[in-house]
Amino acid sequence: MSSEQSDLRGRKQRLLLALVIPVALFYVVFLSSSTSTSTSPLLAVPPRIHIASSEVDGDKEQQQLPPLRQLTDAPYSLGPTVSDYDARRAKWLQDHPGFPAFVAPGRPRVLMVTGSSPHRCGGSTGGGDHMLLRAFKNKVDYCRVHGFDIFYSTAVLDAELTGFWTKLPLLRALMLAHPEVEFLWWADSDVLLTDMLFEPPWGKYARHNLVLPGWEAKVYGARSWLGINAGSFVIRNCKWSLDLLDAWSRMGPRGPVRDMYGKVLGKALSDRGAYEADDQSALVYLLVTQRDRWEDKTFLESTYTLHGYWVQIVDRYEEMRREWAPGLGDDRWPFVTHFVGCKPCGGEYASYDAAQCMRGMERALNFADDQILKMYGFEHESINTTAVRRVRNDTGGPLDADDEDLGRLLHPTFRAAKSTVQFRSIAASYLVLSTRKSGKLASSGKFKLNEVCYLWKWFPPIRINNRDGLVFSGGCILMTNNNRFSVNEQNY
């Protein structure tokens, strides 16, 4: 029995040693690998694992980036050339009448496009993401009031086009995916809409495909890279625009190509250094060196602030509210306040103090938000605070009953089921139509009407079913038939 107990004790001791020795060895190895920051081995702690999402993500993305395009490689292209794009788009629109490119006479379908980095945005003040959210809310407010669609991107669609250049493949992709959109309006994340009532005069651009904030003298005369601003512009959905985006993007691939074109831009433009190519300088370069190709369809807009320099604006908001009213869009009440040189997410290229930028953005956002809140009877206590107060008591009646500006914001005419524009009623049995050329009477005729039609003005003649017709903005088309006009109701 004693021998059995002795064997049992021996087995227990061997088992204990088998458990203790690996633990002891692990502890010795751990102590030998610890840093020397601890004053005593007894104070040693497991090494802390530091995970910074932006750094880790950045490292992974850096490993996944394609090789840098070399100067000996084929030129960069956004995609295959679509030589018959305009015809294809026209055919699509014809086949899908429920998605017209113009949502009302003279009113194009507009898609606002904006975006920001896919990474977390902190900034030196720690509020970068919150500021981006408020800036996006500002754009959503404007688009809702004016019936625009909006697209927000946090994706880099092509790893060769980084930074400022990410907008180009995005715009091309959206054009091809949305043939129903007539105009795309690019707005940087730091662009704020500060006149909620103003809308670009679309009819002014009937012959143009690109609308840039800028000045001809600065672009074509001084050849200045500051002659335009590429942070807020409007571009038409057409083949001309696809060609422009492709020509523009060739200067953007990161690495040797971007560096080489930076030197080219530095020589070609009067006030630019030889640093790597940026999108704004590249666009000015195209306009001045290929003027015959691009100038005719480009409109340089300076009659309202499609791009308003924030430094000259943010301290005048109180004065604007005392002296003027929204709907002007120019320096009196700027349409856009653009925070160029500010970096809400931080970065080495910031030109202004972060606190100064944040203060200015706070004021601009509250100034714009007041125009929305007043639609519902509220406003900020001041443009320096987010606190709000009631400025109108509820009466049970429509808020815009006695306020024309509120009516234009709350119930714009284009949202009405039927046109609310008042037209002259023609109830007679006959209508006399005449045409003029160069101010002289060219022809006239007396045509019998079989229905009442509301007339204001007519648009250029059209042909439907091999018959001539005149389109009237009152919502009808007069068709010729044996020297008579019949009235056909049309919904626009």
Automatic annotation (TrEMBL):
InterPro entries: Glyco_trans_34, Nucleotide-diphossugar_trans. It holds the Pfam family Glyco_transf_34. It is a single-pass type II membrane protein. GO terms for biological process: xyloglucan biosynthetic process. The keyword Transmembrane helix applies. GO terms for molecular function: hexosyltransferase activity; UDP-xylosyltransferase activity; xyloglucan 6-xylosyltransferase activity. Probable glycosyltransferase that may be involved in the biosynthesis of xyloglucan. Belongs to the glycosyltransferase 34 family. This is Uncharacterized protein. It comes from Eragrostis curvula.
